[in-house]
């Protein structure tokens, strides 16, 4: 049976079913670029870490053929239920995880991976980006978004990240024990053991090392989650890479 979509308790975000943060309810500039690109793609596009379909549904509505992939079956069940019947033939779903998942060589014109990569170790990010390059057709684009050290409960660690970055650490945002940043009383079980927040420089380096040309690499501000709160600056890192 399809699980109910959890209630949102942070404005603009819906909790995931598997303690992998929240799905945004709106698209940022990188995800909007993905949807616009997907609309004119002649091959399918991939939305990996799709959650309940914040980007998959607009891409389908724009006419794209979308492969939606997520590690959580419940997210996929909800997405399939939310997909208008007339668009279901253009949606293919897959329950699988990065970096293990695979797709055939040169399948996609575009790949969106939004706010997933910071759940992976450095080595797994490198493997995942190399695989994405393989899955893209020549000229295809990867649209990547990741949480940075300046958001979430781990932002209290931002000065440590900045110092490690100054010292040349490859993964300066890495938080070995995510449980240390959970709210008091929250059980660690089911949450990721570690978190690897990224910035535009890190994403750029990984993509160039994988053989991509980088079109754009920027910090993105987050959403204002309650009235009167300051805009969370540099909450996300966004990048568009092109397979040469
Ligand atoms: C923070 S949510 C982001 C959802 C949406 N893409 C967005 O930008 O709002 C992360 C999503 O990625 C999925 N996810 C996390 N790690 C994953 C992995 N290694 N492989 C596949 N999906 C993963 C989670 O299940 C969740 O749906």
Name a few traits of the molecule.
alpha/beta, seven-stranded mixed beta sheet, globular, binds S-adenosylmethionine, 244 residues, 9 strands, single chain, two-stranded antiparallel sheet, 23% strand, 6 helices, Rossmann fold
Task: Compute the number of helices.
Answer: 6
Alpha-beta content class:
alpha/beta
Distance between the termini: 44 Å
- The multimeric state of the shown protein is single chain
Task: Please state the second-level CATH architecture.
Answer: 3-Layer(aba) Sandwich
Rg for CA atoms = 17 Å
Largest beta-sheet characterization: 7 strands, mixed
Report the count of strand segments: 9
Small ligands present: S-adenosylmethionine
H-E order: EEHEHEHEEHEHHEE
Number of domains: 1
- Overall morphology: globular
User: β content, as a range?
Assistant: 15-25%
CATH topology: Rossmann fold
Determine and state the CATH class: Alpha Beta
Low-confidence regions: none
Q: Superfamily at the CATH H level?
A: Vaccinia Virus protein VP39
Strand order of the largest sheet: 5-4-3-6-7-9-8
Could you characterize what this model shows?
Helices cover 25% and strands 23% of the residues. The chain has one domain: Vaccinia Virus protein VP39 (Rossmann fold, 3-Layer(aba) Sandwich), CATH 3.40.50.150. The strands form two sheets. Strands 5-4-3-6-7-9-8 form a seven-stranded mixed sheet, with helices on both faces. Strands 1-2 form a two-stranded antiparallel sheet. The chain is an alpha/beta fold and 244 residues long. It contains six helices and nine strands. S-adenosylmethionine binds next to strand 2.
């Amino acid at each position: 049976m399809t699980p109910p979509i959890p209630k949102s308790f942070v404005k603009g975000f819906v909790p995931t079913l598997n303690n992998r943060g929240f799905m945004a309810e709106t698209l940022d500039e990188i995800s909007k670029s993905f949807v616009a690109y997907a609309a004119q793609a002649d091959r399918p596009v991939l939305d990996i870490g799709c959650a309940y379909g914040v980007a998959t549904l607009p891409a389908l509505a724009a006419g794209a053929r979308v492969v939606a992939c997520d590690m959580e079956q419940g997210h996929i069940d909800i997405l399939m239920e939310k997909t208008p019947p007339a668009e279901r033939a253009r949606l293919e779903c897959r329950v699988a995880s990065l970096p293990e998942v695979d797709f055939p060589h040169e399948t996609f014109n575009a790949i969106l991976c939004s706010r997933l990569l910071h759940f992976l170790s450095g080595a797994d990010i490198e493997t995942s980006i190399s695989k994405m390059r393989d899955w893209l057709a020549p000229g295809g684009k990867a649209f990547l978004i990741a949480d940075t050290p300046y958001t979430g409960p781990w932002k209290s660690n931002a000065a440590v990240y900045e110092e490690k970055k100054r010292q040349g650490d490859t993964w300066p945002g890495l938080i070995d024990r995510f449980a240390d940043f959970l709210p008091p009383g929250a059980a660690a079980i089911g949450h990721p053991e570690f978190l690897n927040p990224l910035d535009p420089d890190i994403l750029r380096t990984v993509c160039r090392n994988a053989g991509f040309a980088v079109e754009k690499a920027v910090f993105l501000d987050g959403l204002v989650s309650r009235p009167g709160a300051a805009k969370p600056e540099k909450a996300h890192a966004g990048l568009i890479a092109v397979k040469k």
